[in-house]
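@channel anyone free to eyeball this complex?
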Amino acid sequence: MPSPDPATFYIVYDDGSVDVQTVVGDPIFTKPGRLVDQAEYNQYKGQLDQLNLIYASELKAADDQVTKADYDALIALGMPEATARRISGYTGP
Amino acid sequence: MARCGCSDTGASSVRSLLSADNGVQYNSLTGHFMADISTNPGNNLTLDGSGKLFVPTGSATVTTGPGILGDGSGPNPVRANVAAWPYPTAPVTGSQGVFVHPGTGQLVSPPIQVADLVSVNYDRTYANLPASSSGTPVVADTFIINLANPDPNRPCLVFIQREVKVRFTMPAGSSVGSSQGIPGTMDETARYHNPGTASISNVGILTTKLQKNTSLAAGAVSSFTLSVGTENAVGAVTYSRIEVNLRALYIAQ
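replying in thread with the prediction:
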């Protein structure tokens, strides 16, 4: 007796998170939210992904500042540029 | 003087006038009539102890069809045509027999046992939330799988597979733990360190556990709730996505 095929549902929750749920039968709401179509889901999902991208970019900028400082310090010690780049991880100009 | 009124010609003369027909034996020397009992195989007509015709009880022969053996005679009774018991345990151990269907009158076996595997998959995205620095698990979100025993006749065992993947963005030098479990009993199933000098984003930590859940009565429904959390974050670690696949394996018994 095989189970019926599952269906996919798109949900936007009241706490701001979004969900793609694949389930047999009705969608399961573990917290308050509402069903939306895929286009509306993509809109909310894009906004959330953007937050993550911004944070990752901020971290990357901080990383770059540190590696640039390391690179500058190594150059100031008279180290050849190629070696200083390899040790510091600096890839900027 | 003969009582019949005819001339007395003697017993031998009378006997010579008599003869046997079907089913009767006649001995003209003794003048005895006897039943002429067939000696063909399968015959059950015989004489009882007092010399009377007699068919023993249960000795009426019958013709049987597929699945039935015997002809109903004494040495060859009617019986089911069954295979030898093929299992190592005695037939009474765990056997359920065959039954007469109340509607059709046919012999039927017990219903077959049912096994099934069902799942629900969640793919949730969050607003890049901070992972907890607590030394114990802090719930990030909760997930549910609805359970239903697919066998209407028997209880079933339920095995739950809990597959969880949490995606973290981690600054250089940070670390974080991923936890999952029944609400109130979560434990840290993975801990990840970023020992490098650069940040990493969307690191996926997938953990899976299999547990035997409670049994379900025939046709009963229930649900299983799983909490997923974070803990032991060092540094500004965030999580942006939690993917959970809950699978229930039902085995009727």
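from a first look: The first helix of chain A runs from residue 38 to 76.
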